[in-house]
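Running low. Got one?
___
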Amino acid sequence: MLHQPGHVGLIPDGLRRWADANGATLAEAYLLGAEKTVEILLALQGHGVQTVSVYNLSRANLARRDDELDAVYAASAHFFSALLPAHFDPAACSVRLHGDRSLLPEKYLTAAHDSEMSMTGDEFRINILAAYDAGDELRAAHERAQREGCDITKSFDIGEVDMIIRTTSEALLSGFLPLQSQYAQLNFLTTPLNDLDVDRIDDLIADYRRSPQLRGR
């Protein structure tokens, strides 16, 4: 029996190393990374994936140098304001930002909010994690579970992840949705995001479909 991943986690990585290896600026590397992320999202959508959660920035990442953060913010704003509306039907696709919005700059927040307001479909959902911290998420879920009298596993805004793709050979999740990723199939690629051939996504989906998904059973 073939199994279809409904929810894929994407951890784009290797952009700083790619910039160094290719004589590119951080701004160039992250802009290309935003475009590559859209290519991956389109490939996943084409395979029938319903939700993709993209790890844009952890809260710990906010301690990086200002020039790198500026490059991430500029590329992210371009992703929200230009790339998403150019490639996705707003009546079919939705966008949601998750994380501590108080830690993000106004330009980023404005672009993300505009995407959230204009893209309201339910056929393909894109979660963007920025200034995200798993501890914050767990505390918020605990408070919601107590308030609403439900099990904590039902109080998370983001549901269970079936497969995770990280564009680095480092076998780390770096705090990405730890509870939701308990039974996710993990894929750590040796190719940096900007060099990734999107055909590789086809291979990963095919591998998932062939693999038994026992989830502890």
